[in-house]
Amino acid sequence: xxxxxxxxxxxxxxxxxxxxxxxxxxxxxxxxxxxxxxxxxxxxxxxxxxxxxxxxxxxxxxxxxxxxxxxxxxxxxxxxxxxxxxxxxxxxxxxxxxxxxxxxxxxxxxxxxxxxxxxxxxxxxxxxxxxxxxxxxxxxxxxxxxxxxxxxxxxxxxxxxxxxxxxxxxxxxxxxxxxxxxxxxxxxxxxxxxxxxxxxxxxxxxxxxxxxxxxxxxxxxxxxxxxxxxxxxxxxxxxxxxxxxxxxxxxxxxxxxxxxxxxxxxxxxxxxxxxxxxxxxxxxxxxxxxxxxxxxxxxxxxxxxxxxxxxxxxxxxxxxxxxxxxxxxxxxxxxxxxxx
Length: 340
What we know:
Elements: H1 2-7, H2 17-30, E1 35-37, H3 38-47, H4 58-71, E2 86-88, H5 91-102, H6 111-116, H7 120-129, E3 131-132, H8 134-140, H9 146-158, E4 163-164, E5 170-171, E6 195-203, E7 211-213, H10 214-217, H11 226-240, E8 250-251, E9 255-260, E10 263-270, E11 275-280, H12 286-303, E12 307-314, E13 324-328
Helix pairs in contact: 11-12
């Protein structure tokens, strides 16, 4: 671990002594409060001798220093305009604030949850549908000022921990339950599945084989939480593309019916094959597949940089018990009913 740490570029970076003085001051501040406002850090930086160089402005050096402190985990800071005013010193404070939203409310008992139960309609949506309203957020975060609540919400939105819905409420993917039974998630009557695709994963340096047996897929790796994170991104895109002909989505921890505009599909986390199964009933599977590929690539780049996603399609002639799946390259063409 020490060898890997020393190999990081920021560990060998020379910084001005004034930055080290700021670090000492922030360590003292951390004992008193879990976060600072940007103006507080400006005052600390000024008192420590920043700017320390004549060829750079105060604001430029302050941001360079905050980037560096973020890299070495002294602070947590984001440059986005809706987040930049909050500099977090105590990461456990952020974990605690986030936990009030993402922990299962039916198995944790806190004063905030007791207060939230009084809002019967909102509490029911929170516990059964993984939907939290702005009103309930204010109750759960009642110990924070309104501007801190706003910053916390923007952090959760940034990392996809919650997803903003069209009605002003927020979807919390990690709270999805099994109250909607998988057998109740299906296409409308008369819709026949035309394409079944398997989204599978292995390490980035491993070779993708031309064909996989269903048994062999069990040796692959689907990270825990990946499917729920994908559902969050899918719901976000579904909300952005919702139209009059879109189906209302139906969600479970392991299965979901979702629409991207007029294109509807079912996602299933299949623990037996360690894959995500995509069922599409439209004639053209590419719009759904390409958007899913983009969303999956986003998740991999954010959280699983050593992971690689590839797509498989079942060979029609294979009996279910010995199902063979063929790798789909970028230029592969599909035929209806998965006939390759």
